[in-house]
Every structure is written in C-alpha cells, then in structure tokens.
C-alpha cells in the first residue's frame, strides 16, 4: 500500500511515504532548481576539448558557494565531488578527474544544489566539439524521451505512465532504456520516495497527486540496456560499451499537470543541439 503524507509534518528521512508539498515548498524548489539550471547554462561555454572534468567540477562548487548553495553530492555517502560527469559509455555517476575531454565526446553533467534546505537536481548532455551523427541522434532521442515522460505527468495518472511514454518512444527509435537506475522523489530530501522508473506500463506504480515533487532522468543507450558498476563503487558503464545519454528535470505535480522547475533560463536545455522544430 502506498502512503501519502503532508511534507510539513513528515520526518526528515525517507520512510517510504510520498510527500505532498505546498506552495511554499514549490517556491523554494523554484529557487534551488533555477540556480542549478543557471549553473548548467554557464557550463555550455566551459565544456570544450582539452578541458578536464575536474575543472567543470571546480566551477560547480565555486558557483554554488558564490550563490549561497552547497553541492548535494559533495561528501554524500563518501562521494567526494560536487558533480557527476559521465562521458560516452558512462551511464551515470562518472567521477570528475584530471583527464581532459576530447573532440567528439559526449558528457552528461549532473548537478544538485541545496539552497535554503531545498534540492535542485538536473542534468544535461553536452557535445564536446563536433560529434558523430549517431551520438547527436542519441542526444535527440534521449531529450525527447525525457519530455514525453514529463508530458505524462498529471494528477490521477500513475508513475508507470511516465515509464511507458519513455520506453515506447526510445525503443521505437531502436535505443534501449537503462533499468538499473531511476528518478526519485526530491525536495527537502536529496533522494526520497517514490522511485520513478523509465520503463513500464501506465497502469502500474503509485498514483500521481498534486504536490508531489520528483526527478525524471532517463538513461538511454544506443546498444543494449545492461550496465555494470566499476570498482570505484560509483561509475556505471554500458556492458557493451555503447554510447549512453541522460537528461534530467525536477518536476512538481500541479492541479492540471506539472511544473518543470529546472528549465534553462537561457534556452539551453539541450546545449549544442539544433533548436527543436515546432
């Protein structure tokens, strides 16, 4: 049985109950999420061949500090960086280091800032210089998968509607959906209930209710969906070494649909790709 609880009275830990937030929380999330979105906008001018991912991570840390926010990943369960930078066949949780990006790479940068107790969580893909058409197509399919998942969010639907929308589209485009990682509740906690699967059936999962806040963050592979985690305990890669991509937004369920908290203020939700048609 799924339990729902008013967030204002909920304990400060994940109990498995789904929090329902009010207008004050939505206002706080807008601020935290827009700070994350602005940081990701700034990174569009930093990502380039020859730039180490450590440089990106240092910028994320300093940008947060300059704006009164703290990177949620820093010291989280032993993770020692302010962001995740996942390159090419890395699915998620890539650890920034001193290795420079190369022409033709694709990199996902995942940032979560804590601002006034609220967690703004988002990620985007960045092409590094000129990329192959197959990589560009993967980015296009992954972004469209995210937006189709978001379009399924409305009160009365189930979380499975999000997964069905993503899976149906991605697989029709001859790509695969990673099963090992999922979206999650977010707000006053970094990771909370419910889990948001990126595959499934519309009739499955908890009912979506006004006031829920969560991430949608599909990981889409050009090859098979299977992944493995490397010996560092964090870095997840495709088993067949095929390219992987991910975009992520934080959304809140409203009376009529949802609000996307992490939209780019600069129109850079898919940096480096041509403008969407229509």
UniProtKB/TrEMBL annotation:
<keyword id="KW-0645">Protease</keyword>
<dbReference type="InterPro" id="IPR001714">
    <property type="entry name" value="Pept_M24_MAP"/>
</dbReference>
<feature type="binding site">
    <location>
        <position position="217"/>
    </location>
    <ligand>
        <name>a divalent metal cation 2</name>
    </ligand>
</feature>
<keyword id="KW-0479">Metal-binding</keyword>
<dbReference type="InterPro" id="IPR036005">
    <property type="entry name" value="Creatinase/aminopeptidase-like"/>
</dbReference>
<comment type="similarity">
    <text>Belongs to the peptidase M24A family. Methionine aminopeptidase type 1 subfamily.</text>
</comment>
<comment type="subunit">
    <text>Monomer.</text>
</comment>
<feature type="binding site">
    <location>
        <position position="93"/>
    </location>
    <ligand>
        <name>substrate</name>
    </ligand>
</feature>
<dbReference type="GO" id="GO:0004239">
    <property type="term" value="F:initiator methionyl aminopeptidase activity"/>
</dbReference>
<keyword id="KW-0378">Hydrolase</keyword>
<dbReference type="Pfam" id="PF00557">
    <property type="entry name" value="Peptidase_M24"/>
</dbReference>
<feature type="binding site">
    <location>
        <position position="121"/>
    </location>
    <ligand>
        <name>a divalent metal cation 1</name>
    </ligand>
</feature>
<feature type="binding site">
    <location>
        <position position="248"/>
    </location>
    <ligand>
        <name>a divalent metal cation 1</name>
    </ligand>
</feature>
<feature type="binding site">
    <location>
        <position position="121"/>
    </location>
    <ligand>
        <name>a divalent metal cation 2</name>
    </ligand>
</feature>
<protein>
    <recommendedName>
        <fullName>Methionine aminopeptidase</fullName>
        <ecNumber>3.4.11.18</ecNumber>
    </recommendedName>
</protein>
<dbReference type="InterPro" id="IPR000994">
    <property type="entry name" value="Pept_M24"/>
</dbReference>
<feature type="binding site">
    <location>
        <position position="191"/>
    </location>
    <ligand>
        <name>substrate</name>
    </ligand>
</feature>
<comment type="function">
    <text>Removes the N-terminal methionine from nascent proteins. The N-terminal methionine is often cleaved when the second residue in the primary sequence is small and uncharged (Met-Ala-, Cys, Gly, Pro, Ser, Thr, or Val). Requires deformylation of the N(alpha)-formylated initiator methionine before it can be hydrolyzed.</text>
</comment>
<feature type="binding site">
    <location>
        <position position="110"/>
    </location>
    <ligand>
        <name>a divalent metal cation 1</name>
    </ligand>
</feature>
<dbReference type="InterPro" id="IPR002467">
    <property type="entry name" value="Pept_M24A_MAP1"/>
</dbReference>
<feature type="binding site">
    <location>
        <position position="248"/>
    </location>
    <ligand>
        <name>a divalent metal cation 2</name>
    </ligand>
</feature>
<feature type="domain" description="Peptidase M24">
    <location>
        <begin position="28"/>
        <end position="255"/>
    </location>
</feature>
<keyword id="KW-0031">Aminopeptidase</keyword>
<feature type="binding site">
    <location>
        <position position="184"/>
    </location>
    <ligand>
        <name>a divalent metal cation 2</name>
    </ligand>
</feature>
